[in-house]
Amino acid sequence: MKSGLELRDLSIRLGDRLLVDIDLVIAPGEIVTLMGPSGSGKSSLLGHICGTLPPVFDVRGVVRLNDTVLDGLAPQDRHVGILFQDDLLFPHLSVGGNLAFALPSSIRGKTERRARVAAALESAGLAGLAERDPVTLSGGQRARVALMRVLLSEPGVLLLDEPFSKLDRGLRDQIRSFVFDLARKNGLPTLMVTHDPEDGQAANGRVIALD
Ligand SMILES: Nc1ncnc2c1ncn2[C@@H]1O[C@H](COP(=O)(O)OP(=O)(O)OP(=O)(O)O)[C@@H](O)[C@H]1O
Q1: How far apart are the CA of 166 and the centre of ligand 1, in A?
Q2: Closest atom of ligand 1 to CA, residue 210
Q3: Residue 1 pLDDT > 80, yes or no?
Q4: Distance (Å, whole) CA 80 – CA 42
Q5: Average pLDDT over residues 150-154
Q6: Which residues pair with residue 27 across a beta bridge?
Q7: Which domains are assigned to the chain?
């Protein structure tokens, strides 16, 4: 039984400012929304979970993912998936190349890698687009590819750093449901940072405010 993401007695200080002071467990498939004013420490918290927070921050407490302590592990060994405001697709790789890049190196065979990429595209409603150049995709298609790329890396947790804020209003609802549905279906504990209260309402879970 997976225990999800645990942030135990976690505090993040910058000089004499206490930015984050939190004790939180996010269950598999649960989506927790994190809100707070600019500079309150939301991105710092995500950075700490990823293992990319610079040492200028003073951090106490423990981060555990499914019973593995992440503190001290290199970012690439943490199984943390993150989506940003920008989809960050590699412009020099095809759509399929972007997806294949994320596959764990343990999946070696070319046929198996192609099959995984094709299945991911199909489940995102993008079947047949593997050879396309990402610049030729619509905003919605790019957002879907970005999520599939994260999922193909087989993360144990999903972090969302304002991932819908650059999407047109009409598209936003659609991509939100796409991301939330897949996060739940994959049983991923999910932590979403946002400034948009509608994101929190759509996630239909706990909302935490940093002040
Ligand atoms: N590398 C760094 N070195 C020093 N201070 C930093 C660094 N990165 C961020 N900070 C400071 O840490 C504080 C928290 O920043 P953080 O980016 O976590 O806030 P945030 O809540 O994500 O803000 P926003 O909503 O604007 O993204 C801010 O005062 C910021 O200036």
Answers
A1: 20
A2: 21
A3: no
A4: 16
A5: 95
A6: none
A7: 5-79+155-209 (3.40.50.300), 92-139+149-154 (no CATH)
- 28-70 pLDDT tens trace: 999 999 999 999 999 999 999 999 999 999 999 999 999 899 9
Cα(47) to centroid(ligand 1), Å: 10
Asked if residue 47 has its Cβ within 6 Å of ligand 1, the reply is no
Q: Report which protein residue has its CA nearest ligand 1's atom 29.
A: 39
pLDDT band at 105 (very low <50, low <70, confident <90, very high): confident
ipTM entry: 0.95
Closest-lying ligand 1 atom to the alpha carbon of residue 46: 18
Looking at beta carbons, which pairs linking 73-77 to residues 24 or more positions away fall under 8 Å?
75/50, 75/51
Q: Are strands 58-65 and 68-69 parallel, antiparallel or unpaired?
A: antiparallel
Task: Report the alpha-carbon distance of residue 207 to residue 166 in Å, rounded.
Answer: 21
Angle at 82 between CA 122 and CA 149, to 5 degrees: 25
CA distance 56 to 66: 28
- Atom 1, ligand 1: residue with shortest CA distance: 54
